[in-house]
Amino acid sequence: MDAPSQFPEAVPNCCPACGGQVAIEQFAPVGDFPCPQCGSPLWFLRTSLREVVVLTFLPRSARDRETVERVDDVVSAVGNLRRVVLNLSHLPFVSAFFLGMLVRLHLKMEAAQATLKACGLS
Fold first, then answer.
1. Cα(84)–Cα(46) distance, rounded to whole angstroms?
2. Are 46 and 53 in contact (CB under 8 A)?
3. Helix locations, 8-70, DSSP H
4. What pLDDT score was predicted for residue 99?
5. CA 70 – CA 68 distance, rounded (Å)
6. pLDDT of residue 119
7. Residue 62, Cβ neighbours under 10 Å: how many?
8. Which residues is 41 bridged to in the sheet?
9. What is the pTM assigned to this prediction?
10. Among residues 65, 61, 73, which one has the least CA distance to residue 105?
11. Are the CB atoms for 103 and 118 separated by under 8 Å?
């Protein structure tokens, strides 16, 4: 996916494990998504826009209990950036487990004095 022209410093969607570029268009609405470069299971992609990190969650991420336990993966993907946007537009639904992960993430980000926003939830 090409970076919008108004964000010349944008980094395309990438795997949070290996940093390899991943096109979001290749994902089906359901199923597991391995990274094409490293094979790691993907449940979100990372994009950096200037001083903001955007995490785009894939459809699989909202459906199971292990999502709650992966909050540390999300925090690691954020790194030291203090402004985070969660793109939820690819999620067909959000489970109670996913909401639990969002609450845990919010508390960790708040403790780190970071700003956390969500967008795209239908």
1. 10
2. yes
3. 66-69
4. 85
5. 5
6. 93
7. 22
8. 34
9. 0.77
10. 73
11. no
Residue 80's CB: how many other CB atoms inside 10 A? 7
* Per-residue pLDDT tens listing for the chain (122 residues): 344 444 445 567 888 888 888 876 655 555 567 888 898 888 888 888 888 889 888 876 656 666 656 777 777 777 777 899 999 988 888 888 788 888 888 888 888 898 999 999 87
Tokens coding 82: 């203090």
If we measure between CA atoms, which residue out of 18, 25, 99, 22 comes closest to residue 86?
Answer: 99
Phi, psi for residue 21 in degrees, rounded to 5 = -70, 135
The alpha carbon of 90 is separated from its chain's Cα centroid by a whole number of angstroms, namely 11
- Structural tokens at position 45: 């992609």
- d(CA 20, CA 22) in angstroms, rounded, equals 6
